[in-house]
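Dear H.,

Thanks for agreeing to be a second pair of eyes. The structure we're designing against is below in token form, covering all 144 positions.
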């Protein structure tokens, strides 16, 4: 392949060579685009078929709010204790903790990363322990 004009040592990518490179480059994206179009069409056909095939008979019973098999009685407003949200928040914190522990375990097993990742994970677990200690001192973990 001759050198590019004005750039010694670099191949000349004009003509068919650049067209082949561009074709290979966009082929991967065209496959992804085709799969995206097929996915959108699949969902659209499914929703369209559901709309065409389902019976539409609105009755007062069908339009009534329904939750867990209990008919709604009284007002729609109910007070919820804040402690339920605190427990949910603590659960999310420890779920995120487990999400970070699994990849850490795989990196810890890789050669050359042992001591560094061990120290980083203990710092991370230390932050979580401080948060748990804070919640315990505030009395959040007591179910009364």
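And this is the sequence the design step returned. I haven't edited it by hand at all.
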């Amino acid at each position: 392949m001759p050198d590019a004009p004005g750039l010694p040592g670099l191949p000349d990518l004009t003509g068919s060579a650049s067209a082949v490179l561009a074709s290979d480059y966009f082929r991967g994206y065209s496959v992804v685009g085709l799969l995206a179009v097929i996915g959108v069409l699949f969902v659209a056909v499914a929703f369209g078929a559901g709309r065409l095939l389902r019976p539409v008979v609105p009755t007062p019973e069908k339009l009534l709010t329904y939750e867990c098999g209990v008919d709604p009685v009284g007002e729609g407003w109910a007070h919820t204790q804040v402690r339920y949200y605190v427990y949910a928040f603590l659960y999310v914190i420890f779920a995120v903790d487990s999400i970070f522990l699994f990849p850490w375990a795989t990196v810890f097993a890789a050669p050359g990363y042992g001591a560094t990742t061990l120290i980083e994970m203990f710092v991370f677990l230390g932050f979580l322990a401080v948060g748990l200690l804070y919640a315990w001192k505030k009395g959040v973990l007591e179910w009364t």
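Two observations from my side: The helical segments are 16-53, 82-109, 114-137. The chain is about 60% helix and 5% strand.

Warmly,
E.
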